[in-house]
Fold these 3 entries.
Entry 1:
Amino acid sequence: MDADKQEKISQVHPYLQANLAVVMDPVNGTFKFRVGEEVRHTKGGVYIITGLPSEYVLEHSREPAYAYMMIDGRICVRSQAEMEDGRFESVPEGTALAYAAEKQAADR
């Protein structure tokens, strides 16, 4: 965890520090996916994780959320619960590029 996040955690009530350390640490936190990881939706589509639930929430419900990039470059946000319930699975690095090339060839 970087020094900036450690400093922010040290400024809150001790009761909250342990919980924040887990939530704010993308390496040791409780997230299924990591920034830069490529994932595939069970119904199709390959995406790249761009943000973690420690940084994003859904506006209407304040649920923690992941941000991810579609192959056309648009960013989507989906709740942590939905991302981690089995709809998405990790795929090998480079899958997103291969998927994009395949999709582009099919559209021609």
Note: The longest strand covers residues 46-57.
Entry 2:
Amino acid sequence: MIIRKAYKYRLNTNAETEQLMSQYAGNCRYLWNKSLALNLYHLQNNQPMIWYQELDWFSKLWKKSDDYAFLKLSPAQTLQQTLKQLERAFKDAFDKKQPLKKIPTFKKRGERDSFSFPQGFKIEGRRIFLPKIGWVNFRKSRDIEGTPKNVTVSRQGKYWFVSIQVEMETSEPIHPATSMIGMDMGVKRLFTLSNGDFEAPINVDCFKNKIKRLQKRLAKKVKFSNNWRKLKEKINRLHTKIAHIRHDILHKFSTTLSKSHAIIVLENLQIKNMTKSAKGDMDKPGSMVKQKSGLNRVILDQGWGLLKTFLEYKQLWLGGQVMYVDPKYTSQTCPVCQHANKLSRKSQSEFECVLCGHEEHADVVGAKNVLGRGHRLLACGEKDVSLLCEAGTRQFSNELEPAVA
């Protein structure tokens, strides 16, 4: 079994290396935007796409011109990697197996600044050699295991980081645990487990209040002035700190869960659809827009998607499994008698079955139903069949009744 991991470290840079890195990242960003604009023009005019080989030829031609001679200052492999990444982004966007993928977008200065080296780098102790940059020290917080395959240098806020991707071959892992748990994502609680355990939501309100105050001051400054830039940098640092807090909390929770349970059952939530704006348009204006906007903000702050991603790859490394079930009516179905009724959900936290009178916290009820659907998924073997097994929860059309029988 081949496993690919990435080790990310903060670089100890000086003014000279930061200037070179900013220049290389800017050249890669410029080449990405120019190549993307060419392909978008071709798509709009029903012309064939320009793929990597042709774009690489164009980039070499641009280097020889006076207008784009600055591209020669960057290592050739960083520009080639940028074109390969753009090609992969377009192929993913057109892949029907990845419906959530979209056409790549233009990059802005200061956002996602990065460049990659597939070869030519060296790692010795606490320093790394980058082509055309030289040796740069980094804060080595843990040892690197595996064979380094490529490195990516990126900027977050005012700091530069290096991400070293390694490849290692291991035997097929066997999960140390044998238990199976259901998980219900929430707003008042980050998540609730079917055994009754839960975790409080991620709270970063103190930093958000600071950001609001700084943004009000920023609006009164002259754009791109020195004071404007200083305030902008403070706001970026706070956003970065919030992201680090979120990642730290979710990594700790996902590590604990993946080590404790062999199978974790989650709801197949479409987070992108759940957090769509409710504004509507002129013909069909939305309702309760402010409330929906607040709910969207809370959902995105909790990082449900990140938690799912962390659980998936950590369970894969440990030999466990993450299963997804249909989320419909999980909080309205009694886990005892399987009677589904929206009146059973008394409030955000209260559940009382209108048929058998079973009382429990609504989030625990949802987690137990998720676990039950996970058991049926394992028993039936297919997702579609598992939904049919819930005959006591839903009423199916006449066409589905023979399949249930």
Note: The first strand starts at residue 2 and ends at 12.
Entry 3:
Amino acid sequence: MSITLKGDKEIENIPSVKRKSLRINLNDNIYGTFAEIGAGQETVRNFFRAGGASGTIAKAMSAYDKDFSDAVYGIESDNRYVTEARLKRMLEHEIELIEDRLSRNKHPEKLFFSYANTVATIDFAKKFKGHGWVGVKFQLDPLEGYNEIILHIRFKQTDARLQQETLGVLGVNLIYGAFYMNDRPKELLKSFYDNLDSDQIEIDMINFSGPRFMYVDNRLMSLQLVKNGMTDAVMFGADGNNLLPAQVLYKKNILALRGSFRPVTKVNVDMLEKAQEMFLNEKTVDKDKTHVIFEITLSNLRAHGDINERDFLDRAELLCSLGHNVMITNFQEYYKLVEYFSEFTKKRMALAMGVYNLIQIFDEKYYRHLSGGILEAFGKLFFKDLKVYLYPLKDQETGDIITSETLKVHPRMKELYKFFKYNGKMLDIKDYDPKILDIFSRNVLQMIAEGKEGWEEKIPEKVAEIIKDHRLFGYSKRRFSKDN
């Protein structure tokens, strides 16, 4: 990889932390402030050590005392300090100060920036490894508005000093990428791990904004986090903006529906609605603290080869239109998904699934990597406060309706199946719509691609309208008009 910028020498391969810091320092136009809370001034220290920092650093500060921090940045409504809201307030405050105190007439070519982080490193008992918010607000043209990159990190190391050093490297990578790689956001994202290992830090949320990132779809950036192994799960909301899973799911009841959603069909919607009714009728479920999630696995996105970003965005567009949060995960097995949810909540959780998915759960080949095999997986899956709501399957040859009562599993799995079936962990969705059991996403997708009539009747009306309006999944109005 080679990177060039007018007035700078070419840097080949991955530059070191010192080289990145020095390149920033030697650029006469880049000038800004550093505000770091919670792990020392680890990022700015790299710029001081590199040399030539006087032309880059306007100010470096650490408002550690809470009262002092509140006096500088104001008081948050939730009285918390390691939050996205706090980070944004820090970035905005520091930019306002530098704009107010430096004359544009005197410094017409200056590109101002503010870098900030607010983190909590590992606690003394080492039960909580720590996390934090990191961001940069910056200009690429003095006459343009500011751009912003904000990300959330989770520390993996078990030593506070090592976490501080890791944060310092990440900060340098972020500032360097903002100024020198902003036109290649995917490469910029990967560069966050320059001079770092994946077992040091996890990045589980990122958002780009500003005039230079108008073309960036943050959902695609979320996908890149999972695809690159930077995290195992990401989430975005109905508005398309990325969300922090830990923040959304904390102490919540969770109902998840896994699928390909290519496209969303009436079966998906019926399954979700009926499962939600059953879930909310549970005594331990609080309606106001319940989150419904559509989940797509990375392996599903790769089912037809390399990930097709257009196809991913088509699915995301439809799921967002239904008003629920969407998760992309690297959890092929259900027990891993439940374990992930359990990091954030001890409340009751539920999975809505079809019979076919349940059959896969009882397939031993998915658990050969576990020393305890399928028994270990089921222990992890059902040890939690979990319910499975099962949607029936219509046998396309016989017309029989398959439920948990009539499902046949491998003889070796029969007793295990009975155990989990009759202890109340699995419940059949009985109030389903029998008229839609012949609908399958793959058939609907083929009808759309081939320009056949009748596909609209198999999916929600709103979804059909979006497919037509946005020409999703290869839909062509001209082809339908010509053929029909």
Note: Residues 8-216 form a domain with the Maf protein fold (CATH 3.90.950.20).
